[in-house]
Amino acid sequence: GIQVEQSPPDLILQEGANSTLRCNFSDSVNNLQWFHQNPWGQLINLFYIPSGTKQNGRLSATTVATERYSLLYISSSQTTDSGVYFCAVGVWGQGGKLIFGQGTELSVKP
Amino acid sequence: GAGVSQSPSNKVTEKGKDVELRCDPISGHTALYWYRQSLGQGLEFLIYFQGNSAPDKSGLPSDRFSAERTGGSVSTLTIQRTQQEDSAVYLCASSQDSRGHQPQHFGDGTRLSIL
């Protein structure tokens, strides 16, 4: 099956810093989503982005489907950005089910 | 409702007992998914439902697990004869379609602990 690898596994930032999280996948996808799991365990959808670039406030994401990777950019990080960021992909012909990466755990220090 | 609702939020039970977990998706969402999150396995797909089509059960780990969706809305995940390795957070998500063309929105999960 498809493999989803996220890097780095852990990241510690000072408040105000910028960061880039990466998601590599091993096969063609028809679906790619980024999620943030906050310290209380809630999983929030950040982006639905099978290709192209999207921005939402301080967050933006880019997926280059032909090269099988996606990037999540966090600018001017805040302590509330702490948590685990997951990339999840869906494969053609398998409906909407998502295969998740192992996540990047981000800690933003004040 | 405004979001995906799951109940109970926590469940503690003894090994060998049966449990039922409930999910109420976002109103109007035709696709419903179950995942589980455990320390050793990360986030794993279990099963999904789309309208009146047969569910995709390919992620269910054993025949002790089953799920149904009544009236195209509420879903129940049932685990029979629970084992300690079933301890995990069970997450439900819904989306406007199941072809992968819409974002999935998750509930807060049910934390299941098997003693």
Spell the H/E element sequence of chain A.
Answer: EEEEEEEEEEE
- Biggest interface pair, residues each? A-B, 25 and 27 residues
Tell me the major beta sheet of chain A. 6 strands, mixed
Overall radius of gyration of chain A = 13 Å
Termini separation of chain B comes to: 33 Å
H-E order of chain B: EEEEEEEEEE
Alpha-beta classification of chain B: mainly beta
Largest sheet entry of chain B: 6 strands, mixed
**What's the pLDDT, averaged over the residues of chain B?**
93
Cα separation of the termini of chain A: 41 Å
Average of the residue pLDDT scores of chain A? 96
Shape of chain B from CA axes?
globular
**Uncertain regions spanning at least 5 consecutive residues of chain A:** none
Alpha plus pi helix count of chain A: 0
Structure commentary:
- The complex is a heterodimer of chains A (110) and B (115).
- Chain A has 110 residues and is mainly β.
- Chain A contains no helices and eleven strands.
- Chain A has strands at residues 4-7, 10-14, 19-25, 31-37, 43-48, 52-56, 59-64, 69-74, 83-90, 99-100, 104-109.
- In chain A, strands 2, 4, 5, 9, 10 and 11 form a six-stranded mixed β-sheet that branches. A five-stranded antiparallel β-sheet of chain A has the order 1-3-8-7-6, with no helix packed on it.
- In chain A, a hairpin with a 5-residue loop joins strand 4 (31-37) and strand 5 (43-48).
- Chain A is globular and about 45 Å long.
- Chain A starts with a strand and ends with a strand.
- Chain B is mainly beta and 115 residues long.
- Chain B has no helices and ten strands.
- Chain B has strands at residues 5-7, 10-13, 19-24, 31-38, 42-50, 65-69, 75-79, 88-95, 105-106, 110-114.
- In chain B, strands 2, 4, 5, 8, 9 and 10 form a six-stranded mixed β-sheet that branches.
- Chain B is globular.
- The A-B interface holds A 30-31, 33, 35, 41-45, 47-48, 50, 86, 88, 90, 94-103 and B 31, 33, 35, 42-45, 48, 50, 56, 58-59, 89, 91, 95, 97-106, 108-109.
